[in-house]
Design brief:
It is a single chain. Strands 1, 2, 3, 4, 5, 6, 7 and 8 form an eight-stranded antiparallel beta sheet that branches. This protein has one domain: Immunoglobulin-like, CATH 2.60.40. It has one helix and eight strands; from the N terminus they run ββββββββα. By secondary structure, the chain is mainly beta.
Length: 121
Amino acid sequence: MSNQYTYEFQTYFRRTGYGGRDEAYVYRIQDNELVEVKPALSRRSRTGRHGFDVWRLPAGTYIVIYISRSNNPNAPYEVLIKKLHITDKPEWTDLLKEEIMNLNELPQIIEKAKELAMRHG
């Protein structure tokens, strides 16, 4: 048995035809860069519009990005970005919460969150 602690968490996935959205992305902070971490498990409904994702993360520092929007395509996306630091237990820190109208704005928000994460150790 390994002494390596692994943190597992699950998030809901939803991407409806009406514009509703719930999804998460995970990036490991490595050498001052963000490296995307794919889920260890993804399950989707027959239509692919609903499901869940599971990550199994070893010790390290991560940025977790949650994107959500109601089924109203004119509503803004809510973007919540958290820092997750894993040692022998997970420690979550809220970094940023913003509303955006277009997902093309997401890379700038991710960069801002990365800078905040680096500044706060």
